[in-house]
Structures are given as structure tokens and as C-alpha cells.
Specification:
The chain is mostly beta strands. The protein has two domains: 100 residues, Immunoglobulins (Immunoglobulin-like, Sandwich); 138 residues, Thrombin, subunit H (Beta Barrel). Helix content is 9%, strand content 46%. The protein is built from three helices and 22 strands. It is elongated.
Length: 291
């Protein structure tokens, strides 16, 4: 049998293919809808007891994708929370500002968070570095507390200016509290964290310590000013506002830090209308602390 030349086989193959043996052209299908997911930064830092700067979460559409994407943050350490809380929803074309807050007890650390973005069967992940830094101010832990049963509505009545309810005797380490709800001045030992005395003072609304540290002055809502012995923890005297007049020359001092010399006659109407303030007589001067 004679061999067939290779050139004849090549010609025959071309002719056979060109005769249309039922073949059809292949059409590439369109890409499936999808989305991309990203953070505006690769890392974020937050200090103990504070909140971080915002990091932006973005979702962009691909190939006609539409819908919403649910984002979950995985790996948050104890004491650190995300806002908005995980999981949260991001709409396509909308950016979300993500904040991280660390409690004062959160442990300093550097770690990677994993963010998972899901929509139906589509899932994408991204990483975000998180650093929790030590606070410049050490967090204070509460080792004890003293119950006073004060009433906020009486301590800060609606329509009245705020007044100082506490006076600290730093020498004797005693805290004096004007408790209007109970009509007492309560005395707390700072080192022991215990209540050591209650001094009757009807309508007590404000407290202050004299410059020499010997007297605690208590303003009231009954137009009376209580003079307390800071050492003996007893009432020395109860003064009516009118009984303090007249004083020749005096200084009126307020929490606005403005001082001026005036005659008592010009002060008396003011003091009578602001008797919640603390009126004291120290070293020949008249002080009103209207807190």
C-alpha cells in the first residue's frame, strides 16, 4: 500500500472543516455581579478610656451589583467596642464611618481584626490593624463608696443655678456634703471612706470652707446660714441673712471670678434674693460664693 503524502492529508482536513460540519461559535457569558469592600486605612489606634478617629468602610459595585452588604468585625479584644456595632449594613455607594472605643481597663495590645462582608452567596474579607494604647492617665478603680440618698431634683432644682454641694477639708481629710433631701450636712472621712457625722441643717443646699479652715459655711433654702465647727463637727451658730448686716466695706466674690468693693446696703437685696449662696465673713471681708 502506497503511503499518502502529508500534504494531501493537510489539504483534505482544511476542505472538510470548511464544508460546515455543524460547528457553532462560542459566546463568552457576562461576568457575574459582585462588589468590592475596603477600609480607608489599614490600621487604627485607640487609647484606653477614649474613642478612635473614624475609619471609613466603603462598598463599590461591580458588574451591575445592587443590594446591601453586611459587615462583621471579628477579633475585637475585651473592653473594645465598635460603633456601629458588628454586624452592620452598608449600602452600595454609601460610606460608613467606623469608630472604636476602649474602656479604661482594656489591655494594651496590637492585633489584626478581620472584617467579613457578605451579600447572599458573595463574601469578601479585609484586615484592619488595631492598636490599643495605654492611657496617659491611669484609670482609677472604685474601692469604696458611701451612700448619701441625695435627690438630684433637690440638689439641682430646675431654673436655679448650680451650687457647690461639697466642701473638702484637706487638712483633716473630711468631706462635707450639703444634703437638702435629708436636711443634713453629712461628713465623710476620706481615708476611711466612711460617714462619720450628720449635722442637722434644714434646707442645706451649698457648702464651703473658710480660708482659715476652721469653719464650714452651709447655705440653705430657708434663708438661714449655718456656721459649723470644722474640727468639732458641731453647729456654732445659725444666721439669718438679715442678721449679717450691716458690714461697712465688703467684697462680693462669685464663681465668675469677678470681685468688687461695695457697701452692704447694695449687697443686702442681692443676698436676700440669692440666699442659696454661701455668705461668710472672713478677715473682715464679706464673701458670697454663688455657685
Amino acid at each position: 500500500m502506497r503511503p499518502v503524502p502529508v500534504s494531501w492529508l493537510a489539504v483534505s482536513l482544511v476542505l472538510f472543516t470548511g464544508c460546515g460540519g455543524g460547528g457553532q461559535s462560542f459566546v463568552q457569558p457576562p461576568p457575574a455581579p459582585d462588589f468590592s469592600f475596603s477600609f480607608s486605612s489599614t490600621s487604627i489606634t485607640v487609647a484606653q478610656g477614649s474613642t478612635s478617629n473614624a475609619v471609613t468602610v466603603s462598598v463599590a459595585l461591580k458588574n451591575g451589583f445592587s443590594g446591601q452588604v453586611q459587615v462583621s468585625i471579628i477579633g475585637l479584644p475585651a473592653g473594645v467596642t465598635a460603633n456601629p456595632a458588628s454586624p452592620f449594613t452598608v449600602s452600595v455607594g454609601t460610606d460608613i464611618s467606623l469608630l472604636f472605643s476602649a474602656s479604661g481597663s482594656a489591655a494594651p495590645a496590637s492585633l489584626n481584626l478581620t472584617a467579613t462582608a457578605t451579600s447572599g452567596s458573595l463574601t469578601h474579607t479585609s484586615s484592619l490593624g488595631l492598636t490599643v494604647q495605654s492611657s496617659a492617665v491611669s484609670p482609677l478603680s472604685r474601692s469604696n463608696y458611701v451612700r448619701t440618698d441625695s435627690v438630684a431634683a433637690l440638689d439641682a432644682p430646675l431654673g436655679e443655678r448650680h451650687r457647690r454641694h461639697l466642701a473638702l477639708d484637706s487638712v483633716r481629710q473630711r468631706l462635707f456634703i450639703a444634703n437638702r433631701a435629708r436636711n443634713f450636712v453629712e461628713v465623710i472621712s476620706v481615708p476611711e471612706g466612711l460617714k462619720i457625722a450628720e449635722i442637722a441643717a434644714p434646707g442645706a443646699t451649698s457648702a464651703d470652707l473658710s480660708i482659715d479652715g476652721k469653719t464650714v459655711w452651709i447655705g440653705s433654702a430657708v434663708q438661714a446660714i449655718y456656721e459649723l465647727d470644722a474640727a468639732a463637727l458641731q453647729t456654732r451658730a445659725i444666721h439669718g441673712v438679715a442678721s449679717l448686716a450691716p458690714l461697712p466695706r465688703c467684697t462680693v466674690r462669685t464663681t465668675r471670678r469677678s470681685s468688687r468693693h461695695v457697701d452692704w446696703q447694695s449687697v443686702c437685696p442681692h443676698a436676700a434674693s440669692r440666699y442659696h449662696g454661701i455668705v461668710t465673713c472672713v478677715l473682715g471681708s464679706f464673701d458670697e460664693f454663688d455657685d
